[in-house]
Amino acid sequence: MALSIELVDSLKRCLRAQGLTYRDLAARLKLSEAAIKRMFSQRAMSLQRLEQICDALDVGLAELSAESARGRPAMANLSESQEQALVSEPALLLALFLTINRWRQEDVLAQFDFNIAQWTALLVKLDRLGIIELMPGNRGRPLTARNFRWRANGPMERYFRLNLLGDFFADPFDGEQDALLLLSGSLSIEGVKQLRLRLEELAREFDALLARDATLSAQERVGVSLVLAQKPWLLQLFQPYRRAQNG
Fold first, then answer.
1. Domain HTH cro/C1-type: where (predicted)?
2. How many alpha carbons lie under 13 Å from residue 94 in its C-beta half-sphere?
3. For residues 76 and 78, what is the distance between their CA atoms, to the nearest angstrom?
């Protein structure tokens, strides 16, 4: 297989991992969507064009070559042990967050209380855990998909429920960048299914926005967290008024 074909296939995987479409890439390169599709379908492009695409995806040629040699897709989930390692060391979890969001080392050191040795040690740990690949210049390449999901009832989800949920809701949601909607009502089973699909669509839109803004500097971005959830539920304060069910 020609190296150019391997690299183009690797670019396709990078696009999928970042939740980007050919249209998104065309907009970044100021080309037509048809031109992008043609380049990828013919699996041939100039080195200059390859470098432009790498810049648009914030991926180095060395990283792309290494990824194409492995040919493995990005991880959609972490293992139980990987999540537990992150839960057990908050600084390591922060390092993963910063790496996934493509923070440069100089920005990390400017905004967080790490020195170079401490930051390097965290990246080495993530590399040994198989979550990132440590590249020259302390650049971490995530081995996860940008939109990877935590394990259902895994270490991170349990940690969030027990330790972080109260912190998330502790302060009022009254800022310009805040939003809190408390909704409740009765729906049919079909209505509940439709609502879940809409929540999944919103999650995908969030992933797409993350990918779109990934090339901006750290100073131009704001950390944002969403909690999307639904379940059949009645407030605990209503429980004393519930009639006992027979059987």
1. 11-64
2. 13
3. 7
137 CB burial (10 A radius; 0-12, 13-18, 19+): exposed
Cα distance between residue 120 and residue 24, in whole Å: 33
Confidence (pLDDT) at 228: 84
User: Tokens 């940008």 identify what position?
Assistant: 146
The whole-model pTM stands at 0.64
Of 22, 44, 70, the residue that ends a domain is 70
Count of structural domains, the chain = 2
Beta strands, E only, the chain:
132-135, 139-142
Residue 195 tokens, joined? 């609502």
Q: For residue 223, which amino acid is it?
A: G
> Domain range spanning residue 8?
3-70
Maximal C-alpha separation, the chain: 73
43 Ramachandran zone, left/alpha/beta (phi>0; psi -120 to 50):
left
Specify the residue for token string 């990283």: 63
Amino acid 123 reads: L
Cα distance between residue 142 and residue 30, in whole Å: 27
Can you give the CATH number for the domain in which 25 is found?
A: 1.10.260.40
Residues 6+ positions from 30 with CB-CB distance below 8 Å? none
Closest CA to 100 of 143, 142, 147: 142
pLDDT tens-place string over residues 7-56: 777 788 778 777 788 998 999 899 999 988 988 887 767 878 888 888 88
Give the count of beta carbons closer than 10 Å to the beta carbon of residue 150.
16
